[in-house]
Structure formats: structure tokens, C-alpha cells
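User: Design a sequence. Structure:
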């Protein structure tokens, strides 16, 4: 039985294996990104261009697409997620709450969860912001930064694309 239109049972089983093998299900169900996203981006920067861009990241974000290892996740995995970014702090709301801080430089992020399901974890990520859309590609291992926004053949790479809830 397929629970994601257009996806093969093998592809969906692969995603389930990732969730189980790498304990991602709780992370994703609490909106992985959740934390991650949040992350985002507000640290400190001497660059006015970066500061201006990051200022745009303040607010509430809603996921519109998520992907792991080249496979799209069904909207049911992230439909309740909301990510709020305020300065260097983030809060992810889903089945539970995840809070933390993010440090950034040159399109890269270091995300540190301080409270919630990911407490004590460090994630590395790259991000891009364009026209009220925020894309974040996380390396869930946290051992290096991804080089591109591709997840295929990278079982611990997670992509989340967000739209701002109420763009200014």
C-alpha cells in the first residue's frame, strides 16, 4: 500500500529505514527542521548585506517541502510544524517544542538545540533565502557542511524549504 501518491513502496520503505536506523523519526516528527530551520541564522555579522538578509529571517516559517536522501517526505510529516526565528534564537513548534541558538557565516549555519527533543545536539547546515522562501540543507551528523542543496546519496542530509507565514 502506498501512503504517498507517486512513490514506490521501496522508496517509502527506505525512508522508514532511515527513520529507524538513525533515530530520525522522532526528530522529523518533531520537525526536524524545526530546529534546524530555526536555526537560522541570526548570529553576528559585520556585513551589512548579511545583516539585512538575516533580518528578513525573523518571523514565523511554514514548511512547504522536505526531502531526505533524494526522496520527498509526505506533507503529513511536517504539516503541523512552525519555525519562529527571533535574532539568534529559534523555536520549532510541532508535536513538541524545540528551542536553541544558531550561529552563521557565509551561507553556513551551526545549530545548537538547548531544549526539547534535540537538546544537546549540534547540526551543520547551509541555507539560502530568496523571495520569502528559506531553504536549509542540514547534515544531521553535524560533522561537516553540505556543499550543495542535493540530498540524493546522502542519507543524513535533510532539506527543508519554508515560506514565511506573513511576509512583511
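Assistant: Done.
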Amino acid at each position: 500500500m502506498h501512503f504517498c501518491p507517486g512513490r514506490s513502496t521501496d522508496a517509502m520503505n527506505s525512508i522508514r529505514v532511515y527513520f529507524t536506523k538513525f533515530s530520525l523519526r522522532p526528530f522529523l516528527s518533531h520537525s526536524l527542521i524545526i530546529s534546524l530551520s530555526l536555526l537560522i541564522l541570526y548570529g553576528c555579522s559585520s556585513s551589512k548585506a548579511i545583516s539585512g538578509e538575516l533580518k528578513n529571517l525573523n518571523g514565523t516559517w511554514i514548511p512547504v517541502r522536505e526531502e531526505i536522501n533524494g526522496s520527498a517526505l509526505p506533507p503529513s510529516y511536517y504539516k503541523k510544524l512552525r519555525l519562529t526565528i527571533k535574532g539568534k534564537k529559534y523555536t520549532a513548534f510541532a508535536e513538541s517544542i524545540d528551542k536553541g541558538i544558531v550561529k552563521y557565516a557565509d551561507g553556513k549555519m551551526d545549530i545548537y538545540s538547548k531544549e526539547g527533543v534535540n537538546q544537546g545536539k549540534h547540526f551543520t547546515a547551509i541555507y539560502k533565502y530568496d523571495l520569502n522562501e528559506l531553504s536549509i540543507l542540514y547534515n544531521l551528523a553535524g560533522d561537516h557542511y553540505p556543499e550543495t542543496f542535493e540530498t540524493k546519496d546522502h542519507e543524513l542530509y535533510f532539506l527543508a524549504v519554508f515560506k514565511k507565514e506573513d511576509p512583511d
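The radius of gyration is 15 Å. DSSP finds four helices and nine strands in the chain.
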